[in-house]
Amino acid sequence: MAVTLQDTKLELERLVADATKDFSEVDESRSLNDLRVKYLGDKSVIVNMRRNMKDVPKEDKPEFGKLINKVLGLINESFEEAKTKIETAELNAKLEQERIDPSLPGLGTKLGHLHPLTQVSNDIVSIFEKMGFSLVDGPEIENTYYNFTALNTPEDHPARDEQDTFYTKLGEEVLLRSHTSSIQIRAMERLKPPFRIIGHGRVYRNEEVNARKMPFFHQLEVMMIEENVNFGHMKWVLNEFLKQFFGTDVPTRFRPDFFPFTEPSAELDAQCVFCKGKGCATCGQRGWLELMGCGMVDPNVLEMAGIDPEKYSGFAAGLGIDRFAMLKYKINDIRFMFNGDQRFLNQF
Ligand SMILES: [Zn+2]
Prior knowledge:
Elements: H1 5-25, H2 29-40, H3 45-51, H4 61-97, H5 116-130, E1 134-136, E2 141-143, H6 144-147, E3 174-176, H7 181-190, E4 195-204, E5 216-226, H8 231-246, E6 252-259, E7 262-271, E8 288-297, H9 299-304, E9 313-320, H10 321-329, H11 342-345
Parallel strand pairs: 1-4
Antiparallel strand pairs: 2-3, 4-5, 5-9, 6-7, 7-8, 8-9
Helix pairs in contact: 1-4, 2-4, 5-10
């Protein structure tokens, strides 16, 4: 079939117009590729025309060839233009996504902090360490000897009762320590007097949970065994400790009390640091706060631990770390200490 130059020119003009329009409107790579196949691919009109050059009259061939090359060039140009436009747009979109604004504030790193109980026990320990006391430790799972017997607690003492103490299935002798005094007994067996020690940790008692009580809490023990230690030494050490802990001179009073492992025994009250003795909600309008039990170590306890009571004497005191933390930070419910609520913990 003969192909006339005139027809071809018209067809090519239309082709160039269509291609230019299509390429100028395309705006993403996949459609661009479809257009490239349509206008420049193996089955495209222009490639077909070049293939069919053999049907063109001999005299028209040079012009025909030139025409096709020109059209190919124009379509290619449109294609390259569209390609550049799309690639630039895609690159800009990517850059926009990855754009960094150096004027924005940094994200920052959230630092953790110590639990208020840990802060308070660290404070207490460091005050006693400055007075020459060293920190000792003991197990939370104890046996009745260290928890009761060596502390002069009689076999029929109610504290030994299952209603007060958590016994374990490891045998009837094995329990969760009900006070940290057991740490003192282990230390007395191990150390040679003179010594000044403190020990602290978690203790367990079979208590109902309420605002003031938990089945576990934290105690700290203080003990000083030397020659000629008397009640006056104890008063000085404990008063000095309270002064440093509360940051002010605190009037105190020692009321007689009873503990199996000290004789004489006393309860140490401090004038309420919040109302200065006038009476407030924290001290229950009494003007005094009960802070710790203390006393001179019973000679029987010294003897059982292998310390000569004729030569040495000493005092022991025990306080609740939870109570000190509650006083220091004015917390009115002990359960806040243990429920892990960030709104509470982040205040410290
Ligand atoms: Zn008060």
